[in-house]
Amino acid sequence: MNTDPIADYLTRVRNAIKANHRVVEIPASNLKKEITKVLFDKGYIANYKFEEAAVQGTIKIALKYNPISKIPAIRTLTRVSKPGLRKYAGIDNMPRVLNGLGIAILSTSKGVMTDKEARLQNVGGEVLCYVY
């Protein structure tokens, strides 16, 4: 039993990057699938595939590295809102990661999106993580 599946997801990706793995497998959930889609859309991961073979299903994520220097596209992956202390951001106090160079992934009433998309759609929500 895992108390924080999002932190587990981020830790698995972080560990795979540290070990220079090309692919990481993660147990699936709808929220994890949406976070994966956001990471792919913003260019932090190379590709992903949802496999529904098991009861829960898995997410296979192909990590992205610089072809010459082998530096990963994801430098830092930080969990913000935890089960013990939820962090919410309104439209007026939306977080900016690395002065706009990174992204904050939010869970809003209109779905999972980045901080920039939330500003455009004028919605706030729970700040899940920072990526840069």
UniProtKB/TrEMBL annotation:
Signal sequence interval, chain numbering: none
SUPFAM superfamilies: Ribosomal protein S8 (SSF56047)
GO biological process, one term: translation
GO molecular function, one term: structural constituent of ribosome
Cross-referenced Pfam families: Ribosomal_S8 (PF00410)
One GO location term (cellular component): cytoplasm
Classification via InterPro entries: Ribosomal_uS8, Ribosomal_uS8_CS, Ribosomal_uS8_sf
Keyword Ribosomal protein: yes
Keywords assigned: Ribonucleoprotein, Ribosomal protein, RNA-binding, rRNA-binding
Summary of the function given for this chain in its UniProt record: One of the primary rRNA binding proteins, it binds directly to 16S rRNA central domain where it helps coordinate assembly of the platform of the 30S subunit.
Protein family: Belongs to the universal ribosomal protein uS8 family.
Subunit architecture: Part of the 30S ribosomal subunit. Contacts proteins S5 and S12.
Name the record gives this protein: Small ribosomal subunit protein uS8
UniProt source species: Rhinopithecimicrobium faecis
